[in-house]
Design brief:
Helices cover 44% and strands 17% of the residues. It contains 15 helices and 13 strands. The longest helix is centred in the C-terminal third of the chain and has 17 residues. It binds pyridoxal-5'-phosphate. It is an enzyme of class 2 (transferase).
């Protein structure tokens, strides 16, 4: 057997032995609050579609309208002929909404994060990241030419000890697996304009702040660079880096993920523009989320596994991988889809169910979820 194949086989079987193997699950039809898989119907508490826009009919029609106007694909990278009027309108809309001079688009948040770190950092630079930052940021930091230091999650005292020279500080606005917020105001004031503050707000945009402007607006902080993704609360896909003219121009010239990649389909840019309008205008979606979030937390207040958050991400930290898998399986048997999150996505011993609420859930569904969770949690002790 080729040494390559030997290595691949071994890594997969080690994962399987430690209950860490992941599977792709084909969902039938739309990824709605109710979906069907393998002849069964499940209530979905495992999507990032916080505002319920991924299957919103009005938004679907807008995307179809975008296809009528612009066709299917962009046909080229943005610096060739892939940048259209729809992209220009999206840039204007985002900059006006979030208060930046430039926005550059990427096919995913993963690519946008990598573009920021790979392009802006050089040898001898210092990069400081929260330990729980997303894999795209940590990996890019490790591979970048800069020196990377990581501070303990949200630990300002630790961060302070690392800020001894000009640097780039990178944090998520809302942490994806914990649902907690970064102390952005304090980080900004610790930095005292001695570097660039970069915030990945994949899970805050649309959900927090005035008109859904995200965790920076919620904290009253304007970072130097903001990354927003369109595949979570905005219900579509893709991402943007928001920044000033200088950084925007530098990225346009040198960011390989931007220059050498096919631009987002213009119809998608058109749909994202409409999604932003809906996010801004339809505050009832955020109000509904807040109501459901409160109900969920009250119902599970007696359970130490349940962590209260200000966001729709509600981790239930159960510790061992086997217990997390068992709970997810039991919940599935009763019609609730909750994905078990295991190492290496989270630290060893902190396996969890990542419960996510969306504006399309009903109070009755939250009540049913918490009732079943309580009994499954008790039985799994
Ligand atoms: C914090 C964070 N940043 C970036 C990403 C990547 O975004 P995308 O799914 O658009 O690649 C994710 C997605 O899981 C995320 O949770």
């Amino acid at each position: 057997m080729l040494a390559f194949n030997q290595r691949f086989k071994q890594a997969i079987s080690e994962r399987r032995d430690r209950d860490l193997l992941r599977n792709v699950v084909p969902i039938k039809g739309r990824n709605d609050r109710l979906f069907s898989h393998s002849q069964h119907c499940y209530l979905n508490f495992s999507s990032n579609d916080y505002l319920g826009l991924a299957t919103d009919k009005t938004l679907m029609k807008e995307w179809q309208k975008g296809i009528d106007l612009y066709g299917n694909g962009s046909g080229a990278s943005p610096l060739v002929t892939g940048f259209s009027q729809a992209h220009q309108e999206l840039e204007q809309s985002l900059c006006e909404w979030l208060g930046f001079e430039r926005a550059l688009f990427f096919s995913s948040g993963f690519a946008a994060n990598q573009a920021v770190l790979f392009t802006l950092l050089a040898e001898n630079d210092l990069l400081v990241q929260d330990k729980l930052n997303h894999a795209s940021l940590i990996e890019a930091g490790l591979l970048s030419p800069a020196q990377m230091k990581r501070f303990k999650h949200n630990d300002l005292s630790h961060l302070k000890t690392l800020l001894d020279r000009e640097c780039m500080v990178v944090t998520e606005g809302v942490f994806s697996m914990d649902g907690d917020l970064s102390p952005l105001t304090e980080i900004k004031s610790l930095m005292a304009h001695q570097g660039l503050l970069v915030v990945d707000d994949a899970h805050g945009i649309g959900v927090l702040g005035e008109e859904g402007r995200g965790s920076c607006n919620y904290a009253g902080v304007q970072p130097d660079i903001l990354i927003v993704t369109f595949g979570k609360a905005l219900g579509v896909s893709g991402a943007a880096i928001l920044c000033n003219q200088l950084i925007g121009e530098y990225l346009t010239q040198f960011a390989k993920h931007y220059v050498y990649s096919t631009a987002l389909p213009p119809a998608q840019a058109f749909a994202i523009c409409r999604s932003i309008d809906m996010v801004r205008e339809q505050s009832w979606r955020r109000e509904k989320l807040a109501e459901l979030s409160y109900l969920y937390q009250v119902k599970l207040s007696d359970f130490c596994e349940s962590i209260n958050t200000l966001t729709p991400i509600k981790p239930l930290i159960v510790g061992e991988t086997g217990r997390a898998l068992h709970i997810a399986e039991q919940m599935k048997k009763q019609g609730f889809w909750l994905t078990a999150i295991r190492p290496p996505t989270v630290a060893k011993g902190s396996a969890r169910l990542r419960v996510t609420l969306t504006a399309t859930h009903t109070k009755d569904q939250i009540t049913a979820l918490t009732k079943t969770l309580k009994s499954v949690l008790k039985d799994s002790k």
